[in-house]
Amino acid sequence: MNMEKPSHSSRSHLFTVRVWQEEIGTDQTEWRGKVQLHTSGDVRYFRAWAALVPLLVTLLSELDNMSESNE
Predict the structure, then answer these.
(1) C-alpha–C-alpha distance, residues 70 and 65, integer Å
(2) pTM of the predicted model as reported, rounded to 2 decimal places
(3) Whether the Cβ atoms of residue 60 and residue 13 lie closer than 8 Å to each other
(4) Is residue 22 part of a domain?
(5) What is d(CA 17, CA 71) in angstroms, rounded to the nearest whole number?
């Protein structure tokens, strides 16, 4: 089996996602979260699970735009 190491131009990014429940009222909680890109330390916050995927898509799009402008 030939296992090649990914090249440095690999389109792979490492994120940390932290989620927690926050009380927003009497007997009401809301999921909130933080996404951090490890290579740059860029941090973004989100409220509600439905916001996580669009946030990741936006971050990845921004990273693509940055890498294209650096070429």
Answers:
(1) 9
(2) 0.70
(3) yes
(4) yes
(5) 29
